[in-house]
Specification:
heterodimer; A: 29 helices; B: alpha+beta; globular
Chain lengths: 514, 441
């Protein structure tokens, strides 16, 4: 039995000689001539402990990893590295994204010590911003963990064997990502891939996969999409219809116009007095006659308009809104011979205001019809609605803002600063979040004036700090830190948050030129 | 001196303080920021306007805010600003409240020096001798009892220990505390963790008991041991040399000391900061331990990756390691060269064997390896591999920063070896020191 095993049994049960270690220690311990057996064992064990510690041998079977290929981009200067370290460790996602984008434009890479944190980012947009600045070391490191696999296919290039493997065998989110990537590199190729697997995909998946075709959409896709209109799932048909509606000259587009042209007609108000009343907005400029469809046939359903209306909307209103939602609004300007503002005002003045403007609004969002977005927004703002219609109203206000031209959006957002209650059912912060960043100088200055005077803007400081244009940084940082009489500690905290973000952005723009 | 962000973060008492300080590290909330060769200063707008000062010689700080955490978030914020945005803290004439503070500090330091240099009042020698004798008696009795207890365990077999729970160890530890050998009591308490911890626990427990038996054996032969070893044994049992005595009479080694690495052990309400230093001229290794209650500051500010000019005073030992900073001159400067260390694992382990030959009870060793590459073995364990293909296992589950820094190429690594595993503390890559322990993942 080995020497240490005596530990388990105990010397009491030990017969014969005291066990020995079989090492050069034995004669040394024997020379002590200890009377007691247990003491003999203990000191022998103690010496063995030191002997082993001093004689430990290292492993020789651990292989070094293959070295990473040399990086192509330089690292940023130390000040920029410090800033990036701060932003990556914690803080606003949008700031980090801005930093990474600037880093990419400056053709710098992330320093190695920040790579694990960058690879551990979960947000899709942040990953997209980080991908170009990982360089060879980042991609090399990503191979070590499955959680970092997203970074492996970030080198630019042709659709490769790896993309195809992921498309055919990967988990669903990765498949969508691979398809989207290939769509960006070779649009018809991606559509062909989708066509090949179409029959085997489940309905919910099909709708998600169709969305990838929006990028690089062209007439080449029409044949496939028309076939998709025969799908059993209404969701899938609606998604295909939306894509077909965006293709100028598509069959679906023509069918929609044919169905809708008979439903609306417009007559401008006659007489000088009517024109004056419309100019001063006391009355609309004309009358919109609306005849919603009395019935629909299978071809409507095939083109994505469901027969059954959603709760809270009647059949005819639903079909009306449905057919209008796919037609580019510019069509109505030509056909009805009036400007968007006049048409919208006329619609609200009539009985079918809700479904007509709902259809036009969805169409404006689909076709990015900037001239219509402002008028439609104003129409929704002015309407008093309840229940389901009120939630649609909110949805439309949020959907139309990003479609507007910048000045129109900013003007409407700033108008809300003065009268937050009138913004309902949307909040000022939500509206500001939808403005394209960076804001224009005028909008920024108007906001800063308001922030200096009021206490009601506390929940908007973060989005504002992220949206300010660089030319306004200096002014923003001059905001007095001391609180005015009311507001006190909470106001100071918000101003501090505001200036902290602006200061970080200022440093960002200084350290990482782009 | 340029500190890195991580080095400033290492000075923070906890993560919340560091985060709060970063929020305040923006010029908009500061007035009258300035620096001189000796200090940094500024006024920070918080609930009131606070005056913040930092002495650059030893990074001590003072702020007029009421916080009990030191350094407070305002001082840390000033350091972040100075580190991250030098131009925002310009050279300027120091204000009165700063020069006053520096003057007071110099006065206090001078007084402390005088007190340390002055001979301590000689206590009554007869009473001292009686106390020492009594202590020796109690220790001898306590260790006799301990030996009997250990022999009993061995006689009955350690397997029986499994069913007895931690009481067995606690009772013996309490008796040892009464016998005035608290260090031995700690060893016994630590043994309570061995049963059931692995399949070979009885064998491991016998080895640990054996090491303790070596210590009691050495105690009985104290008079025959060489003086340094005798001192060492006394300290291992629980006799202490006070810091004052040490500063006055311990071996003094002046040198430029490189702070190789640092880690903080949070032991309940007491934090223990372990600093490994290496003398650049003498090649001596030192372990400087500092203690701080709760969120309080550590007495000396030691920043890993920097070099300080100081006299260290070593506790007497046949393998001197434990030391304190007796006198410090000048500030710290960053280290931008390869680390002074062993060329390979084999050399390092040979040095460990030599250390154990001189002092068999050493628990932790400073380890600096040049040109090693971090790697993950097939069994999932992390290692660093030297040029000869020999490796040491690392402590801790993951080391991604280290791997990223290496990129598969060799680097210099400083860490703490406990006989089993190496705890990485810092690395030098391309002439830059990176803090590994306690840095963000």
């Amino acid at each position: 039995m080995s020497f240490l095993d005596v530990a388990v049994l105990g010397t009491a049960r030990q017969q014969g000689e005291t066990p020995v270690t079989g090492t050069p220690l034995d004669p040394l311990v024997d020379a002590l001539a200890l009377p007691e057996r247990e003491r003999n064992v203990l000191l022998r064990a103690g010496s063995l402990a030191v002997y082993r510690r001093a004689g430990s041998r290292p492993r020789t079977d651990v292989e070094r990893p293959a070295a990473a290929p040399p990086d192509r981009l330089p690292v940023p200067p130390p000040a920029a590295v410090r800033l990036l370290a701060d932003l990556i460790a914690g803080g606003e996602k949008d700031l980090l994204r801005e930093a990474l984008e600037r880093l990419a434009r400056a053709s710098w890479r992330l320093p190695p010590v920040l790579l694990p944190a960058a690879l551990s980012l979960l947000d899709k947009r942040l990953r997209g911003a980080a991908a170009p600045v990982l360089d060879e070391r980042g991609r090399w490191l990503a191979r070590f963990r499955p959680e970092w696999a997203w970074a492996l296919h970030t080198a630019a290039g042709e659709p490769g064997v790896e993309d195809e493997r992921v498309w055919l065998e990967g988990a669903f989110p990765e498949r969508v990502a691979a398809l989207a990537r290939v769509r960006g590199l070779d649009a018809p190729h991606a559509r062909e891939w989708l066509d090949l697997v179409w029959a085997q995909e489940a309905a919910e998946r099909r709708a998600d996969l169709l969305v990838t075709l929006e990028a690089g959409l062209s007439g080449d896709d029409e044949v496939f999409l028309e076939r998709v209109l025969d799908d059993r799932s209404q969701l899938v048909r609606a998604a295909a219809a939306a894509l077909l509606a965006k293709l100028p000259g598509s069959g679906l587009g023509r069918r929609m116009v044919q169905r809708a042209d008979g439903l609306l007609s417009y007559s401008a108000a006659t007489g000088a007095w009517a024109r004056v009343k419309s100019r001063i907005r006391v009355a609309p400029a004309g009358v919109l006659a609306v005849t919603p469809p009395k019935a629909i046939d299978k071809s409507w359903e095939r083109d994505g308009i469901s027969a059954k209306p959603p709760k809270g909307l009647g059949e005819r209103a639903h079909w009306l809104a449905g057919v209008l939602s796919l037609i580019p609004p510019a069509h109505w300007v030509k056909r009805l011979g009036a400007a968007p503002a006049d048409l919208v005002a006329a619609a609200w003045a009539g009985d079918w205001g809700f479904p007509v403007t709902l259809g036009w609004s969805r169409a404006a969002a689909l076709h990015r019809a900037a001239p219509w977005a402002g008028a439609l927004w104003d129409g929704w703002r002015g309407a008093t609605l309840k229940g389901m219609q009120a939630s649609v109203q909110r949805e439309m206000l949020l959907a139309l803002l990003p479609v507007m031209a910048r000045q129109d959006a900013e003007a409407r957002a700033l108008a809300l600063i003065d009268d937050a209650a009138a913004a309902a059912p949307v909040g000022l912060r939500e509206v500001l979040e939808l403005l394209p960043a960076p804001w224009s100088e005028d909008a920024a200055r108007a906001y800063l004036d308001a922030l200096a005077e009021r206490d009601t803007l506390s929940d908007t400081v973060t989005v504002a700090a992220l949206g300010l244009p660089p030319t306004c940084f200096a002014r923003a940082l001059e905001l007095p830190q001391d609180a005015p009489a009311e507001g006190g500690a909470s106001r100071r905290k918000h101003i501090q948050t505001f200036t902290a973000i602006v200061e970080l952005r200022r440093r960002l723009h200084e350290e990482i030129p782009a | 001196m340029d500190l890195s962000l991580d080095q400033v973060t290492a000075l923070a008492p906890d993560a919340n303080a560091a985060a709060a300080a970063k929020k305040l590290a923006q010029p908009a909330v500061w007035k009258n920021l300035g620096r001189s060769a000796q200090a940094l200063w500024g006024e920070c707008q918080g609930s009131a306007l606070y005056q913040v000062r930092v002495d650059l010689a030893d990074l001590a700080s003072k702020c007029s805010c009421p916080s009990r955490k030191l350094p407070c978030k305002h001082s840390l914020a000033l350091l972040y600003l100075a580190a991250g945005q030098r131009d925002r803290v310009p050279e300027a004439d120091p204000p009165g409240w700063l020069t006053e503070w520096l003057a007071r500090r110099a006065e206090t330091a001078a007084k402390k020096q005088k007190k340390a240099a002055a001979a301590p009042a000689a206590p009554d020698p007869a009473a001292q001798a009686r106390r020492a004798e009594r202590r020796l008696e109690r220790v001898a009795e306590g260790l006799d009892a301990l030996d009997l207890w250990m022999s009993d365990l061995v006689r009955n077999g350690l397997g029986a220990v499994e069913t007895q729970g931690s009481d067995l160890w606690e009772r013996q530890a309490a008796r040892l505390v009464d016998a005035q050998v608290p260090a031995v009591a700690s060893r016994v308490r630590r043994m309570a963790e061995i049963p059931r911890s692995s399949p070979d626990w009885p064998q491991r427990l016998l080895l640990e008991l054996g090491r303790l038996a070596l210590l009691t054996h050495a105690f009985r032969r104290l008079d025959t041991l060489e003086p340094e070893l005798g001192e060492e044994v006394r300290q291992l049992l629980g006799w202490t040399v006070s810091r004052e005595e040490l500063a006055a009479r311990g071996e003094r080694v002046p040198d430029e000391w490189l702070v190789l690495g640092q880690w903080v052990d949070e032991d309940g309400r007491l934090r223990v900061q372990r600093n490994w230093l290496r003398g650049t001229a003498t090649g001596r290794d030192a372990l400087v331990l500092q203690f701080a209650p709760g969120t309080g500051p550590f007495p000396e500010t030691l920043v890993p990756g920097t070099r300080i000019t100081a006299d260290l005073a070593f506790w007497p030992s046949t393998y001197p390691l434990r030391a304190l900073v007796a006198e410090r001159r000048g500030g710290a400067s960053p280290w931008t060269r390869p680390l002074p260390g062993h060329a390979g694992v084999g050399d390092f382990l040979a040095a460990v064997a030599n250390a154990l030959a001189r002092q068999p009870w050493v628990e932790h060793f400073p380890c600096v390896l040049r040109d090693v590459t971090p790697a993950v073995a097939a069994d999932g364990t992390w290692h660093v591999v030297d040029r000869a293909g020999e490796s040491l296992p690392l402590k801790g589950a993951e080391h991604w920063r280290l791997l990223a820094l290496s990129g598969g190429a060799p680097l210099d690594l400083a860490g703490e070896w406990d006989g089993d595993r190496l705890l990485p503390l810092g690395a030098v890559v391309l002439e830059q020191y990176e803090v590994l322990w306690g840095a963000r993942p």
